[in-house]
Amino acid sequence: MTDDALDSLIESLESEAKRDRAPEDTPDVGIIMGSDSDLDVMMGTEEDSGAYHALVEELGFEEQTDYDDPPEARFTFETYVVSAHRTPELMYVYGETAEDRGLDVIIAGAGGKSADLPNMTASIAYPVPVVGVPVQEKSVDSVIGMPTGAPIVAVDAGKSFNAALSAAQILARKHPGLRERLVTYHENLKAEVGEVSRDLHELGTPGFRQR
Ligand code: RP5
């Protein structure tokens, strides 16, 4: 990231914080990750579902890429790379402007043994809740190890899909339509297990394996 790009990102966040936009026009969920190498874990791939699949495919969110041109969907998210150690200024401004920019919840993921982006963002953005995603197993202690009085919500290593569901659960307390989407998602999971169980029983083990 050049200094120009970094400065313009910081300026854009600061100027958005001063705007008076309607809640429908601002992102509801902010997703930040320590590096673009975290993208597959954070947003998912064709093989492994991540936050993108949960938000877009299961819950009907759209990704907002232009603050002046919000997507049609009522619920939106934004995505950024924010490095705690290489761009601490950006991390600080991101957390500090989160509430004024209309974010209701942040999902923050980082890998490595010093995965400080989620926990530092939780402290800076407080009281906006932060759902932390340890991108690797070795990042778990760093993400969840917060002192008393400095809260973070966190999911297991790599579970950005669950982080997105948790973020939507927070939003859904105020939005019945989103609550319905979450309930429908869960009902579908239940039905799938029921169908698999029935098929296993009725086909028997060899038949089930061949189906
Ligand atoms: C990568 O460095 C990790 O996946 C982590 O998210 C990223 C950012 O670390 P810092 O730049 O904050 O040290 O190894």
Question: TL;DR of this structure?
Answer:
This protein is 48% helix and 12% strand. It has eight helices and six strands; from the N terminus they run αβααββαβαβαβαα.
Describe the structure.
The protein is built from 8 helices and 6 strands. The protein has 211 residues and is α/β, with parallel strands linked by helices. Strand 4 (105-110), helix 5 and strand 5 (130-134) form a beta-alpha-beta unit. Helix 1 (3-18) packs parallel to helix 4 (88-97), helix 3 packs across helix 7 and helix 7 (160-172) packs antiparallel against helix 8. The protein starts with a helix and ends with a helix. The mean pLDDT is 97. The structure holds 5-O-phosphono-beta-D-ribofuranose (RP5). 5-O-phosphono-beta-D-ribofuranose (RP5) binds next to loops. Residues 34-35, 37-38, 83-86, 110-112, 117, 135 line the site of 5-O-phosphono-beta-D-ribofuranose.
Structural descriptors:
211 residues, alpha/beta, six-stranded parallel β-sheet, 8 helices, binds 5-O-phosphono-beta-D-ribofuranose
- Residue stretches low in confidence (pLDDT < 50, at least 5 long) are none
Mean pLDDT: 97
Q: How big is the Rg? A: 19 Å
Number of DSSP strand runs: 6
What string, H for helix and E for strand, traces the elements in order? Answer: HEHHEEHEHEHEHH
The number of distinct helices, counting runs of at least 4 residues, comes to 8
Q: List the bound ligands.
A: 5-O-phosphono-beta-D-ribofuranose
Helix fraction, binned, reads 40-55%
